[in-house]
Structures are given as C-alpha cells and as structure tokens.
Amino acid sequence: MGPTARYQQVEDYIVRRIQDGSWPPGHRLPSEHELVQQFGMSRMTVNRALRDLMQKGRIVRVAGVGSFVAQDKPQLTLLQIASIGREVRQRGHDYRCAPLAADRVAAPPDVAAWLGLQAGSSVFHAVCLHLENEVPVQLEDRYVNPSVVPNFLDQDFSTVPPGDYLVQNVPFDEIEHVVDAVLPTDEQAAHLKIAAPEPCLLLTRRTWTRTTPVTMVRCLHPSSRYRLGSRFDAVGNQRFG
Predict the structure, then answer these.
(1) Could you say which of 27, 59, 146, 176 is the most buried, measured as most Cβ atoms within 10 Å of its Cβ?
(2) pTM flag (> 0.85)
(3) Exposed, middle or buried by CB within 10 Å (0-12, 13-18, 19+), for 64?
(4) Where do the domains of the chain lie, and which CATH numbers do they carry?
C-alpha cells in the first residue's frame, strides 16, 4: 500500500476507536479544533475526513453541536467481528488465548488466492486456541498480509489475541463471513479435546482495508460448545453476535 493521505490518517484513527469499542454508538467525537491540534493538520483536511466518514455512515454531524458515532447498521454478512474473549468474560467466565504457532510462511495456493497474492508469497501465519474456563471453544488459524500489518508477529498473542490486535490497529471497511458444518481433522480434534467424528462449525472470515485484503482466518468451533448467530432490533441495530 502507498503512503496514507493526511485526511485518511484522521479517518483511520476515528474508525479504529469505533471498531475497538472505545467510542460506542452515540459517542461524541473530538471537535474539529481538537483534531486539528492533535494531528497538526489544517482544518480543511480534518473537515474532509469527517465529511467522508459521514458519507460512509460511520458518524453523524449535527450543526452547532458536534459529530457523533452513528448507530450500528445491519450488515449483509452473518456476523460482525466480535471479540471471543469479551464474549466469554461477559458470561462471567475465565478466558485464555493460547498461541500455538506464529511464523512467516509461504502462502498456500488457496490462502494466496483469498488474500489476492501470488502463490508462495510471504505471509504471516498464527494459530491460537481460545479457552473458556480452560475448555477449548475455538481453534483459530489465521493468515495476515504483511504489507498491511508489518508488526503483526511482534505481538504477544497470549495478552492480546490476533483478532483483537487487528481490530484495534487496522481499520477495515469490508468483511466477508462464510459458515460451514465440517468434521475436524485428527490434529484439530486433539487441540479442541473432542472426538474426531464430532461435527464443528467453521467460520471463515476475510477483511479488507481500502480494497486491500488484510487477513483470512478460519475459526473452528465444536458445535456442542459454541453457537454462531446475531440479533438485531426492529431498526437493524445489532445487539450481539
């Protein structure tokens, strides 16, 4: 990706705060003057960023009052990106992310195609096991585009899981989810501590930032321990997912 335009830097900052939950729907954004001071940019540049975000439905601007994070809108995908750790803790349970692998590898043909790269291109690969009260509930197998997230492998995923790190640091503007019913391999079953014939739900997710693929991840869940779903109110605001 080329150098980020100055107005895009402001957009990315605001979008990251929205995506990681720091600024929930209805939260009042810093004023134009505050953003000008924070970024050392002209008022015109900051104003363009806010206008773009308004046109994309990310924020609402009220003349004489300020700018606010817009209410969530329903997506054509099954789910929004949710933090499994947050979900587990909200149930009052203990959560732990156990990293199993984190390497730079040659992209397999299917992964390269999904990330829009040449087969054999260098990509980051991370595998993590997510546990609820020490019971495995998700096996995460993730590939990341190094040109978008060059510091990905520098992170301690036992402290900040890969998905949480990406949501907090990379603004995404497109998400794709596909869910399949599958049987695990022997290795996957061993990680999840289930019998190999036990059916699982496989959630495959891709995200993009400004048309560039960021990550492709396969999240495998034992169907006896986990469900996938979303709930929306009558006007389309997501309750949970």
Answers:
(1) 59
(2) no
(3) exposed
(4) 6-69 (1.10.10.10), 84-240 (3.40.1410.10)
